[in-house]
Amino acid sequence: NWNLDKKLQYDYLFHAVRQRKRYDKWMKREEDELIPLIAQVYEVSSRRAAEYLSMLSKEDIEALRKGYGG
Prior knowledge:
Layout lengths: L5 H11 L2 H4 L11 H9 L3 H10 L2 H11 L2
């Protein structure tokens, strides 16, 4: 019920949904295998490496894979 207090909604869902169903693998963000490679090559953080990944072309990514064994 959308009109109930948020605490009541939380308590209901917490106790109504089994613990196994509350957590699942899909809830975690999957890390791209290229991000650690890019972070190492460019010496940047993982967050910055994810930004770099969106800017790199396919040719650049292939060159990184070949050159650094990723």
